[in-house]
Structure of THUMP domain-containing protein 3-like:
Amino acid sequence: LNFAEQTGKTCTLAVSGPELDQAVTIGATVPTGFEHTAAEEVQEKLEATARVSKNRGRIYFDITTDKLLKVHQLKSLDNLFVVVKEYDDYQFKTTKEEVQIDWQELAAKLPWTNALAVWKLNNSIKKKKGRRKRTNPTKSDQCGNVGTKSTDTVPSDSEELWEDLEALEVKGTQKDVSSQPENDYEEEKHSEIQDQESGVTPLKFRVTCNRAGDKHCFTSNDAARDFGGAVQEFFQWKADMTKFDVEVLLNIHNNEVVVGIALTVESLHRRNITHFGPTTLRSTLAYGMLRLCKPQVSDVIVDPMCGTGAIPLEGVMEWQNSFFLAGDNNGTAVSRSVNNIKHILKRTHDGGSSSGLPLDVVQWDLCNLPMRSSSVDIIITDMPFGKRMGSKKKNWELYPLCLREMARVCKPGTAKAVLLTQDKKCFLKALSQIEGLWRKLHTVWVNVGGLHAGVFVLKRTAVVFGTTSEDVMEPHTSGKEKLYWKAKEPVLFQ
Ligand SMILES: C[S@@+](CC[C@H](N)C(=O)[O-])C[C@H]1O[C@@H](n2cnc3c(N)ncnc32)[C@H](O)[C@@H]1O
Ligand SMILES: *[C@@H]1O[C@H](CO)[C@@H](O)[C@H](O)[C@H]1NC(C)=O
Ligand SMILES: *[C@@H]1O[C@H](CO)[C@@H](O)[C@H](O)[C@H]1NC(C)=O
Ligand SMILES: *[C@@H]1O[C@H](CO)[C@@H](O)[C@H](O)[C@H]1NC(C)=O
């Protein structure tokens, strides 16, 4: 097939679609280690079974396109793409030149049609969200720009259905978009491209390659450049690394090759946080940690080192029937958390009425919590790693005290703790000193900003606090006060 025929064919198909119930494969990046947790969410909310690409931070699942908006609302997923084609065992040639020729052939034979239709559909939802008052439903077809200059409209019944879906599902979001000036600007720019009457402006694209494996004779840059060249030639799109409309993804892992088209412009992990701190946790990871402890109705859930509040904020939005308590000893962190909550309240209840969320923030020292013993169901926190926050030396003081105080406030026999730290050595040592009160259930290994960290899932043993040698403080009754100073002394005066 020559060029025009190929692209022409692409367009004819796209004109008739996207069918509302068309089946497509969605790929998503998730925090590494949380693939199964993400798969669980997909099963629960979309009734789709996800394939997990183990320890690589990716999952794949099949949906019908009417679920597209729901996919964007999942909380475990960082970046989304629609799969053009997956190869389980791609036979890479052994020289760069041969590989390059293969990329060219590949670009021309890939089944782009459905994936591009999904991308277009996704774009139309985005457009509508940004510009609700658009009156003319006719717009130039993205696909028309693809080398053939033809135009088309999205079938009107599908437009209406999306409109309905939106009315049902994105009430909250439509406001968000208009309150963010940069977004509006992006929308305008984007629409300009789409509204070009003649379709002379070709789509802008870029190829992003992710490569892992040591048996390749090319780098990810080589692959992106060569495959990019082939895509450009095939579609007659214009390469633009920054202001692209279409982002083509080329994921290579040993012999596995997945070609996709991005459905997210930026990672979803920054959702709902407006006041960032130096170590703000990704919302997607916070969500995964919360899922690990399976919050129940009326549970009291505490993040004693909440920082900017990423964990309790994610928690309170998904598990509204639990009560969240967050605290930090740093005043700046506490006010950031408060501001993040205020911002969400403003979005949810016009103007932020007083009774908003089952969440409270306190400034406290974790080693001396102003809480009754045996009163907490779940402790979930992201501990200072000792890199960007705190120091490794301080951790040797902090971690044992922390585990002990957590054991005191937690309900014996039932409470759980989900603790994230990169200082594994220190953590495990501290844990070994208090084995009578905490049992380690399992560990999820994650990557946090390039650091290898562990999420430790602990269960509180049935042993009552204060009855074992491990937790006895001298003198015991006013122990908390003592404990605090014991912790500080070496750090302050050594
Ligand atoms: C890794 S950060 C938490 C980041 C948080 N998850 C977020 O999303 O912003 C650790 C936090 O522990 C707090 N912290 C350190 N020592 C503490 C203590 N003794 N009591 C309470 N908070 C403490 C620090 O102020 C810091 O905000
Ligand atoms: C796809 O739609 C979502 C939800 O409306 C939007 O946030 C996102 O930016 C769109 N993706 C692209 C690549 O336009
Ligand atoms: C939180 O973020 C999600 C994803 O961006 C959004 O759909 C939701 O409306 C936000 N919630 C609030 C209360 O702002
Ligand atoms: C509180 O945290 C901020 C970073 O958010 C840091 O700059 C400041 O030094 C901390 N304050 C104290 C008292 O540790």
DSSP finds 15 helices and 15 strands in the chain. Residues 73, 172-173, 271-272, 344, 347-348 surround 2-acetamido-2-deoxy-beta-D-glucopyranose (ligand 3) (CB under 6 Å). Residues 39 and 51 are 8 Å apart (CA to CA).
